[in-house]
Amino acid sequence: MNQKMSAETNALNWFEIPATDINRAQKFYESIFDIQMQPMEMMDMKMAMFPWSAEQGKVGGALVQSSMHAPGMTGSILYLNANPDLQQTLNTVQKANGKILMPKTLIDENSGYMALINDTEGNTIGLHSNG
Known about the structure:
Layout: E1 14-18, H1 22-33, E2 38-42, E3 45-49, E4 60-65, E5 79-81, H2 86-93, E6 99-108, E7 112-118, E8 124-129
Parallel strand pairs: 1-4, 5-8
Antiparallel strand pairs: 2-3, 3-4, 6-7, 7-8
Helix pairs in contact: 1-2
């Protein structure tokens, strides 16, 4: 039986980051996280998948270019995993044509650190790390 949202489940199942130019967005995220993203097309959407394994129960997501996805700086903010130290990721943001909106900031000793960036598509994205 599937369990609805609770303390034992993830509150987030999947995420989509809007893109105007999927290739530019893919290049940005591959550059700042030093990852390879898998391109895919489905249901009139161009997508680039973040590394993910459904079998391990981890949350996955993608960059998405479609008529239903509009990048923006307001609305919900998604925090991406930048462990072990988000400063390493922040150091690459401007070189990849993004902007740092909030530098590495301590949340508290138990929660770690956060930062906010503006990606090449105009989205405000959060970064989080324990260190």
